[in-house]
Amino acid sequence: AQSVAQPEDQVNVAEGNPLTVKCTYSVSGNPYLFWYVQYPNRGLQFLLKYITGDNLVKGSYGFEAEFNKSQTSFHLKKPSALVSDSALYFCAWSPGWGTALIFGKGTTLSVSS
Amino acid sequence: SAVISQKPSRDICQRGTSLTIQCQVDSQVTMMFWYRQQPGQSLTLIATANQGSEATYESGFVIDKFPISRPNLTFSTLTVSNLSPEDSSIYLCSVSGGLAGFDEQFFGPGTRLTVL
Asked: Taking the CB of the first residue and of the last residue of chain A, which one, N or C, has fewer CB atoms within 10 A?
């Protein structure tokens, strides 16, 4: 089945250090790839997307992601983590414009001060 | 972007009853979806709400259990029928294809349902 995988249930980093949240995809064709963040008791917030073009995508709150076709990955990165980045992060894909998202299982990011 | 509201934000219901969740968008959108997020889990697509026609359900979800309406381009409802404790989840509405030009998918704040 076509899917995205988030291999880590939890990622722990210290404030000020770079962070990476991993996502790999197993999708045929040219998928749309997304990252969303969910803060406690709040809805999902869109961070960034890759559809086509430049492999490095910049998004909200200083996050970026790199689309790597050879490694079928779309890892989320940030150069310097903040305690306020602590949240649940979801990678997702869709077949195209206007279609529903299919989510990975999520990765909890914990940033310690 | 789109601003999405859901009512109610949370509810506690008795087994065997039903709950209807409303989703209102502040602008016209082409696509509306309903998702379920069970405790500690990821989001699972329930159905696509089609304006003026029957919703399109994902495998494992049926109309009798999750009837959906979408009377216009800004509003949809999801009913969770014959509730059981296993229906305790967060239900989220999302929208895409804004006629104002956006193509990201935006999510409502969710409705937290607890079934006793």
From this structure: N
